[in-house]
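Data availability (excerpt). The following record was deposited with the supplementary files.
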Amino acid sequence: MFSNQYNAAAGSPYAQAYPPPTNPNPNPNPNTAASGTQPLQFYSAGPSHADFPGGRPSLDGHVTTGAMGGSTSFGGSIQPSGGWWSAFGTGGIEGEPPLLEELGINFSHIRAKSMTVLNPLRRIDEHIMDDADMAGPVLFYFAFATFLLISGSPQFGSIYGVALLGTASLYTLLNLMSESPIDAYRVASVLGYCLLPMVGVGAGSIVIALDGVIGYFLSVLSVIWCTYAASGIFVTVLRMSDQRLLVAYPVGLLYGCFGLLSVFRGGK
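Predicted structure:
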């Protein structure tokens, strides 16, 4: 009776609509499977971690898709590490200026302005201060104070104080005297670069004592040199050639203070 009921149920529309499940792969052995049932491979085969001592299994970091057509890879290149000078480069980034240029340090401009101060008799370019910087002036102020310190006269605070007061005073005077304004940054840059002859006197104080006739002569000569160079640059940039003496007077007073600091030993 049960077999007749089962046969009747098998011939019913319900049995035809829902056939019993069948095994799509009757062979359980994957080695003898058909070629069309290969498993998908999402990561490219890389070197085994067993080939490297102390290695561990990890993803290669390089994704490759080739089953769906086309290949897409994600990866990056690591720049080789260089010496300490590589910190001043751009690290291989295209279109990026060097680090020193971003900081406003240009050694070619520093050298050109220094040569203009050392040879004040040649013609001065009126665009020499278009690219004003403070790298050279800070270097010269620091070198001047360091030389005086080595000679036994620590004057760091006095030098920076006189430089700050003199820059503010000359900035005010030049803007009152000139028709074209000048900013304080360029005034400080010119005064700092023109201190270069005084830096030479400070270096000479290590070898010889400046509180004598030779020291007085060198100090006066450096004051005149610095004053002539700075006034020449100011009148050229501001187009005040008929007022050079008026410009040179306060500039000479400023460099005279630096000359006094180099002659007299304030550390004693």
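Summary of structural features: Confidence is low (pLDDT under 50) at residues 5-9, 54-69.
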